[in-house]
Amino acid sequence: MSAEDKNVENEEMIVRCTSALDCGGRCPLRLHVKDGVIVKIEGDDFADPEKQLRACLRGRAYRHWIYHPDRLKYPMKRVGERGEGKVERISWDEAMDTIVKQLHRIKETYGNSAIFFSGGGHLGALHTIGPLARALSMFGGYTTSYGNISSEGPVYAVMTSYGDVMVGHSRDDLANTKLIIMWGWDPVRMISGTDCVHSLMKAKENGTRIISIDPRLTHSGATYADEWIPIIPGTDTAMMVSMAYVMIKENLQDQAFLDKYTVGFDKFKDYVLGIEDGVEKTPAWASEICGVPVETITRLAREYATTDPACLMDCQGPARSAMGEQYNRCAIALTTMTGNIGKPGGSACGGLMGIPYGHMFRSAGIPGMRNPAEAGGPSIRGTLDLNLRLVRRIHVNKVFDAFLEGKKAGYPADIKMAWFAGGNIMTQRGNINKGDRAMKSLEFIVSQDLFLTPTARYADIVLPVMSFAEKNDLTRPWPSGPYLTYANKAIEPIGECKSDWEIGNLLAEKLGYEDFDNNTEDEWLRIFVEKNPEYAQYIKDYDTFKHDGIYRMEMEEPYIAFKKQIEDPENNPFNTPSGKIEIFSERVAELNNPDCPPIPKYISTWEDRNDPLMEKYPLQLLSPHPRVRAHSTLQNVDWLEEVEPHAVWINPVDAEPRGIRDGDEVFVFNDRGKLAIKAWVTRRIIPGVVSIYEGAWYDPDEEGIDRGGCVNVLTNDAYSPGGAAALKTALVQITTT
Ligand SMILES: Nc1nc2c(c(=O)[nH]1)N[C@H]1C(S)=C(S)[C@@H](COP(=O)(O)OP(=O)(O)OC[C@H]3O[C@@H](n4cnc5c(=O)[nH]c(N)nc54)[C@H](O)[C@@H]3O)O[C@H]1N2
Ligand SMILES: Nc1nc2c(c(=O)[nH]1)N[C@H]1C(S)=C(S)[C@@H](COP(=O)(O)OP(=O)(O)OC[C@H]3O[C@@H](n4cnc5c(=O)[nH]c(N)nc54)[C@H](O)[C@@H]3O)O[C@H]1N2
Ligand SMILES: [Mo]
What we know:
By secondary structure, the protein is α/β, with parallel strands linked by helices. Helix content is 27%, strand content 16%. The protein has four domains: 4-66, N-terminal domain of TfIIb; 76-150 and 371-483 and 493-521, Rossmann fold (3-Layer(aba) Sandwich), CATH 3.40.50.740; 153-352 and 564-589, Dimethylsulfoxide Reductase, domain 2 (3-Layer(aba) Sandwich), CATH 3.40.228; 612-735, Beta Barrel (Barwin-like endoglucanases). The strands form seven sheets. The chain has a six-stranded mixed beta sheet with strand order 6-5-17-16-15-7, with helices on one face. The longest helix is centred in the first third of the chain and has 19 residues, at 92-110. The mean pLDDT is 94. The structure holds ligand MGD (2 copies) and molybdenum atom (MO).
């Protein structure tokens, strides 16, 4: 054990740790350990309260997750049907021998591409799925997925417009702005960097006006916003386009900025004014579509254009939809029109995109190797090709379909075996009932996790994994600092749990790969910190870093994306073909896809309010991220369930004619699935829209009704033309029987 401040009186040790979950933050935690057991968890105690990184309610509840009675303690093999979750204890030897035998069989019978491998869950540098991926690559390779399920919409938009994903400001910059438009952004619930809400509070104290545009009165909307502008889901781009209309008509745009730093504004203007298609995108036109009053649109357009600086926080949530990237691209067009890029208090693509500091984490880690099953294929990061031309991977929201349909439907492989090293695919991807069929179609499945999750219930072999408190690792601040964290081991592994790194090494050993990895945990972590220049420039003493569990960067001023490009454009062109911000993108024009236009446009889509399916399924379904979970992780923590029981949000206007009262058990359904859930009748959501937080575990009964309330039995396994997982576009009906 390490990094302890000994409290002699009660013989507790304080171990400085952080979680490593994909939870939206990265919080320094003090784990109080007594007799080898975590007895209490406290948050950051940094001397300057202004700079404390305070944990949310989840961080304080981890004890009931780490010590949950359902934790997997031993490897298991399936003894019932797939999905039933009947398992029996086996030894690590039997588990790994079975896996190796099946790997050889699958490889010899079908070839390496029949092996699907993916993972997630632990955002650490060492204890990752990397070593497993390397061992499988040495074995001849595997098939995996492409596309970031969180943010492919904004990634597409920023790559198109700026050619870069480092488009964030450090959160302290929120205090420098005069207007914050939280456009589908709710950081009080949906943690968006540990320091984010404090910065929002500073802004509020400074008198910054804050507006929330969301179909729901969100936690942030209720606590911080001066105004809530409710909007119909999927129609934000229409409202933004008409704001551009107001600005152009009233000559409010920052023409000097547009002339100097952008290309294609004239083409966008032609669209906005109706010169391109004969439709003037007036506030009246938009109001019909998005439900926001004409006066509100006009007023907001003027306010955004004339408040200097102003910060438009568009994000990933609304973009995780059928035409998601248009929303981010259009938000970028508005930020250029108002000249808010590259300056304090402005924004480039608000919400969750990165600043460079925490990203140095990405270059720490054991070197991997190229996956031979993909050799010769196109490169996969950083270009528009990412979404549109990648051939040897499966889109992240199409994995089930690929399992079922294989090569005959154009997928790169006929998958026979899947290995899930974390991630809870059978709760978190679109169209889970299709997932049920897909998982049942496979010959062999491995799952490694802390719990017998819905995904693990389908596995033939389940491997038990340690929590973050049972190992040492570097962890990544979310979205990216500015600080670096070291999560210290607090307790011995529960049962026979191993880490993902150890499992990778074990597989290599079983496959007979000698000298696969000869370093200990401590040696590796030292190498990452001391030899990686990005760490070494900050961390002068490994042991101090480990002891403190955190290195806080001294920033003279907030980090501002594209500051250089704006201050000195001659020497710092944008990383686009034109060297400027591309409101019109020639690269996109070349794709020649009307649903993926070269300028941002409002495009109606399947399962929006124009879809004839509305007659059968008249309610739009949202699935935001839960305050009390990290996706499906922590869903079994009693304390958190108590804070916010799982329920579907429904407006009284929709509840009353259906005979639904608050607290009633209701059924939510469409052609893809049906789930049972309690109703929360509330005016905090607009009529015609209902909302169920994602992450509740899939738990179908004999009739196929999901009793767990997993929203993804209702969502579609589709993606937008730009590659966004279209998880927020779905129509449903609700009944009491
Ligand atoms: N409808 C709808 N669906 C969504 C979204 C939405 O907005 N709406 N959001 C999407 C987004 S943004 C995301 S990021 C995904 C998240 O999707 P997932 O990553 O699949 O979801 P998690 O619940 O975070 O799954 C993490 C799993 O890893 C396990 N785990 C934790 N630590 C470790 C470890 O160290 N090793 C291993 N092997 N396992 C570990 C946890 O127990 C858990 O089962 O969900 C997506 N799904
Ligand atoms: N507590 C908690 N925090 C988290 C996570 C978590 O699971 N739990 N997950 C983390 C991860 S991995 C990610 S990717 C981020 C996700 O962050 P986001 O993707 O931003 O979060 P969401 O909750 O999906 O969506 C944000 C808001 O968008 C609104 N919204 C949905 N559709 C529309 C629309 O069409 N128009 C408008 N204007 N608003 C709309 C929703 O009502 C919601 O309030 O959160 C991170 N933070
Ligand atoms: Mo995410």
